[in-house]
Design a protein that fits this description.
Blueprint: H1 2-28, H2 33-56, E1 61-62, H3 64-79, H4 85-106, E2 119-120
């Protein structure tokens, strides 16, 4: 089931670029509600892929990772239909930072103080 982990990782990297694109578009050409809604749904899909990966793997994850991701999802959906450039830029910028922080929780380059916080596994340890 390593394919789910790889899909979640690479798809998440693409989503960070799309979040940056939403912010840049909002600041330069104004908000694009249709594009914002599509990107918000794409972020939802990555959340589901991540949850599926957690479900099928025995790997423990930090609860900080999904909490940060859910906060980012909330911000993207809160401003997805907005026509206010400022609201879109602020909400999506904060969501981008939250997604980057969620990535940093389990990334090799992430700070040590984020590692090992609230580790939870859905499966118990394998039988000996």
């Amino acid at each position: 089931m390593d394919i789910l982990a790889k899909a979640h990782k690479h798809y998440g990297s693409l989503l960070l670029a799309l979040v940056v694109a939403v912010v840049i578009l909002a600041l330069t050409k104004g908000p694009r509600p249709a594009f914002q809604r599509v990107v918000a749904v794409l972020i939802d899909i990555n959340l589901v892929v991540g949850l599926a990966n957690w479900w099928v793997s025995a790997k423990a994850i930090s609860l900080l990772h999904p909490i940060l991701a859910l906060a980012a999802v909330g911000l993207t959906h809160a401003s997805a239909r907005s026509d206010s450039s400022r609201k879109v830029a602020v909400c999506w910028s904060i969501a981008g930072v939250l997604l980057l922080a969620a990535w940093a929780v389990h990334a090799a380059w992430g700070p040590d103080f984020l590692k090992g916080i609230w580790l939870v596994s859905l499966r118990g340890a394998p039988a000996a």
